[in-house]
Design a protein that fits this description.
A two-stranded antiparallel sheet has the order 1-2. The protein is built from 1 helix and 2 strands, in the order αββ. It is α+β, with helices and mostly antiparallel strands. Strand 1 and strand 2 form a beta hairpin. It has one domain.
Length: 61
């Protein structure tokens, strides 16, 4: 479970730096993306359709 959270955290960080900037409105579907986690596994947002996806953003100081 910890590895999954770590992978999703990495996924979110890369997503924020690689997607083009455009506005989404409340209720719009999230853009689909595919990223690799720290274990080398690939995850696509559409693979989690219908499930709750929790993104954890962590900043370094």
């Amino acid at each position: 479970m910890t590895r999954m959270i770590t992978g999703l955290t990495l996924l979110a960080a890369v997503l924020l730096t690689t997607l083009p900037a455009y506005a989404l409105n409340v209720g719009d579907p999230a853009p689909d993306f595919t990223l690799q986690d720290t274990d080398g596994n690939w995850h696509t947002l559409s693979d989690y359709e219908g499930k709750v996806v929790f993104l954890f953003f962590m900043g370094a100081t």
